[in-house]
Structures are given as structure tokens and as C-alpha cells.
């Protein structure tokens, strides 16, 4: 069996490698020539536990090829980005381009699966009409399904294999054909449904998380006003068997949770009131943090701020929609100097970036933990006592152990305390 995968990003590439590792012939397609160049030099475009080993093994088997052009195959998987445009609407141009690109290669009996996260009815109203141009009878000669990826960056490969999978077909046969394809590597249960339900399930999962985080953030703001410790309160509330409140923080980043709820708002603006409000609460958090920093240093002449963590969450090297970038941008609008450090990122992307903890803390007036990388949890601030000009620490993630720091003259501030 041959699979052609369009889009070799965070999901397309690992999926391609998993299929290839199971003996399927896989052809990956991407319009990013630099990415293809990297792959041909056996370099991965991003880091993810286990991915390098899988890549090395697959390359040896010669079951994985890649190029900017699709080819004939039995199944086609579209796994391209669906970014948000400036009006918070889904930009489906990559999905449309991919669909148009595969049309000349589609034959009787082929299956097309859309994995990208999309607004409801995209399969029915956008993808299917484009594929109809082949002249093949949809649902009888050409089978179409939606099967959203639902895996968490940082534990992607394990989740791809072990998580349950939702498959929404335009008809039963399409769903079943897609299920047979994914069974090559998916060990979780495969649930079959229709396309719109599958599209909505994906959006609902991420919206549920966004609303829960917004609630935690709102509780954190209430805690600051009413003077109690939100971290202790959440931990106690979560002792209840039916309560699971997530953590407050400097905002919600990543390409999924910060984006997907808008795809529902786009389709049902009058109904999606809570969803929109939650998005707005989470989008305001970087402003709240920047203001908190400004207040901490407002009596200090020419203050120096040190930001720890650029990526959108702990231990991943992904900066997409990272709240840290927003905090940095807001701080650059006020008269302070800012330095940033992220040991996970592994590359220099910003002028403000320095390469070591020593450097970022040198002469600082306020060290701000924005991302809860495991490495930051282990920082022994006492060792860096002399690097600080003013010993202020702001922990937005309840990340560090502040025991004994006050005795050494540190003022430790926290979000939600
Ligand atoms: N965050 C908080 N508080 C929390 C948890 C997360 O502020 O308690 C923040 C994180 O710091 C980060 C953002 O939310 O900035 C998103 O991180 P995440 O770990 O919640 O989620 P993602 O975006 O890495 O992955 C999500 C996952 N969805 C769900 O858990 C419902 C993943 O399973 C999806 O596959 C992925 O989105 C996706 O691709 O849609």
C-alpha cells in the first residue's frame, strides 16, 4: 500500500515515519524546499522525543521518499496548517492548494483523509467540491474522511500510537477505509463518525481546555484582588472527585488551543459566547503579566528585566503563539531593558536572546519565569545571588521552589497570590 502525505510538519512528518516504519510505502510532499533539503541531509526540522531514532530507522529501510510534488498512491493524507487570518477566521488556502495538487493523481478506489484542524463543514463544503473536479463518484469511487490529530507536543509519538482516534467519513465506507489505514500504527480505539462530528470533536476538545484555563486565569486575578494563593486553592479544589481545574499562567500559546476556539466562533458567533469570552481572558494574560513586571520595577532607574522561557509551554522547542513573545513585545513598548533566555529553543531567534542563565541574570532587576521548563524548576537562585542587581523574581507558573529565598534577600512574586 502506498500513502502520499501532504505537509511534512509537526504532524505530517511523524505520521509519515510511523506509516513507513510499518512497511507502507510513503511519499511526503511539502512546498518548503528548505525543509526538504534538511530531510535529505538527514536533519529533522523540529525536536520531539523518539523522532530522531524513528527517522534514522526509516531512512535505512528506504520506504520514505519526499519531494514538492505528489505522486500516485492508494491513500492521500492532507496534513497542512490551517492558520488564522487577521479577522480570527480559518485560512484554508493550504488545504485548498493541497486538494487541488492531488486531483491529477486521484484514481478510482483512492482515499483522501484530511487531518488538519478545520471549521465544521470544511470537508463537505470545501474539500469534497474541490475533489469532485476529478470526475470520480464521491463516496463510491473516491472516499473522503476527516481524522484530526489529537496528540500533545512533547509526547507526540506515543500519543499518535496509543490515543484513540476519531474518523469522520463522508459515508460509512470512507470511514472504514480510513480506519483500516490508521490501524497500521494506531493501537488506541478507532471511533467512526461523520465528517462534521469529527471536525467539531477536535475543536471541542481544545476549546474545553481553553475555557478551563481561562477559568483558572480568572480565579488567579480574583486571588490577587482578594489576597489568597490560587495555586493552593486550585490544588485543594481538585481534591474533589469531579473537579479538575487547570493552571493559570501568562497566557495560552501553541498553534492549537489559542486558535481552534475561533473556528467555532467563526461559524456560530451568536452562540459561541463563552468560547469567545474565554479566548479574550486568555489573550489578556500577557498584558496582565507585563503590567505586573512594570509595577515591580517602577521605582528602579533604567530597570533590566530577564525573561526565562520563550517557547509556548514546558520542554518543547516551539514558539508559535507563545505568550512570552507577547510579554516581550509589551515590555519593549516601555522604558526597560529586556533579556531573554531559553535553553530548550537551541537557536538564536531574537536580538534580546542570551545564551546562558549567567548572562540573562547579570545585573537584572527582575527575573520572570514565563515557561515552566524542567530546567528552570531546578535553578538554585542562591548560586546567582551576585548576578542580580535587585533581587526580584516573578514566577508566573508556580514553577520554582522559593523556600529560603526571602532570607537571602529575594522578593518572590507569583501570579495569583
Ligand atoms: N496551559 C496553561 N495552563 C494549563 C495547561 C496549559 O496555561 O493548565 C497553556 C500552556 O502553557 C500552553 C497552552 O496552554 O501555552 C497550550 O498547551 P497544552 O499543553 O494545553 O496544549 P497543546 O497546544 O500543546 O496541545 C493541545 C492538546 N489538546 C488537548 O489537550 C485537548 C493536544 O492533544 C492537541 O492535539 C493539540 O492541542 C492540537 O494539535 O490541537
Detailed description of the structure:
This protein has 417 residues and is an alpha/beta fold. The protein contains 14 helices and 13 strands. Helix 4 links the parallel strand 4 and strand 5. Bound molecules: ligand SAJ. Ligand SAJ binds next to helix 8.
In what order do the strands lie side by side in the largest sheet?
Answer: 3-2-1-4-5-6-7-8
Summarize the main sheet. Answer: 8 strands, mixed
Q: Tell me the radius of gyration.
A: 24 Å
Overall, the morphology is: elongated
CATH homolog superfamily of the largest domain: NAD(P)-binding Rossmann-like Domain
Provide the CATH top-level class of the largest domain.
Answer: Alpha Beta
Query: Terminal Cα separation, in Å?
Result: 57 Å
Structural class: alpha/beta
The number of helical segments is 14
User: What do we call the CATH topology of the largest domain?
Assistant: Rossmann fold
Family: Belongs to the UDP-glucose/GDP-mannose dehydrogenase family.
InterPro entries: 6-PGluconate_DH-like_C_sf, NAD(P)-bd_dom_sf, UDP-Glc/GDP-Man, UDP-Glc/GDP-Man_DH_C, UDP-Glc/GDP-Man_DH_C_sf, UDP-Glc/GDP-Man_DH_dimer, UDP-Glc/GDP-Man_DH_N, UDP_ManNAc/GlcNAc_DH
Keywords: NAD, Oxidoreductase
Pfam family, one: UDPG_MGDP_dh
Task: Give a quick rundown of the structure.
Belongs to the UDP-glucose/GDP-mannose dehydrogenase family. With 417 residues, the protein is α/β, with parallel strands linked by helices. The chain is built from 14 helices and 13 strands.
